[in-house]
């Protein structure tokens, strides 16, 4: 009797293990046959790999911000691009430096995805260079989504959770939402 139960028990354990393997599987790429919108197509991991958006041009539509901001892979890729394009050089990982901080509630030029997109593409007075023509549109929207995640404006399950390096700030998905308020731009710096 026990000789028949042992192979049956082993078979049940094998079936349980085989079905449990898919439990932790995550799909990070868009499904096959998905639309070719910038938010749904897979991008290269190289900065500037696609056709850049020229300065002064508006995106074809208001923007795939809602699509990008609900995709953890694209938001995390925005974090990588933020470092690759050296946004950290001025914004100091979102805490501010030469550029304004991105982790607080004060937004000089607006906090909507379209306003942030416009700021990156066209630049702003007193230091923000125009990146239009240098960064492809799909990568711009990923950076926009990451910038919004810095002040807690994305869902916790979408915002990046940690950096692979040493970070001076808590992970983006643990920050409380900072309610954006429009503040006046910095006054011009007097020249000597």
Describe this protein's structure.
This protein is mainly alpha-helical and 192 residues long. 33% of the residues lie in helices and 2% in strands. The protein has helices spanning 2-20, 65-68, 72-84, 88-91, 113-122, 137-150, and strands spanning 106-107, 181-182. It has a two-stranded parallel sheet. The protein is elongated, with a radius of gyration of 22 Å. The relative contact order is 0.16.
Keywords, separated by commas or semicolons:
Cytochrome Bc1 Complex, Chain D, domain 2, two-stranded parallel ribbon, mainly alpha, 6 helices, 2 strands
CATH class of the domain at 64-185: Mainly Alpha
Mean pLDDT: 74
The coarse silhouette is: elongated
N/C terminus separation: 97 Å
Report the portion of residues in β strands.
Answer: under 5%
For the largest beta-sheet, the strand count, sense and barrel status come to: 2 strands, parallel
Provide the structure class: mainly alpha
Q: What would you give as the CATH superfamily of the domain at 64-185?
A: Cytochrome c-like domain
| SSE string | HHHHEHHE
CATH topology name of the domain at 64-185, in short, is Cytochrome Bc1 Complex, Chain D, domain 2
What's the total helix number? Answer: 6
Instruction: Provide the CATH architecture of the domain at 64-185.
Output: Orthogonal Bundle
Estimated helix fraction:
25-40%
Taking strands numbered 1, 2, ... along the chain, how are they ordered across the largest sheet?
1-2
Radius of gyration of CA atoms, rounded to a whole number: 22 Å
SS elements, strand count: 2
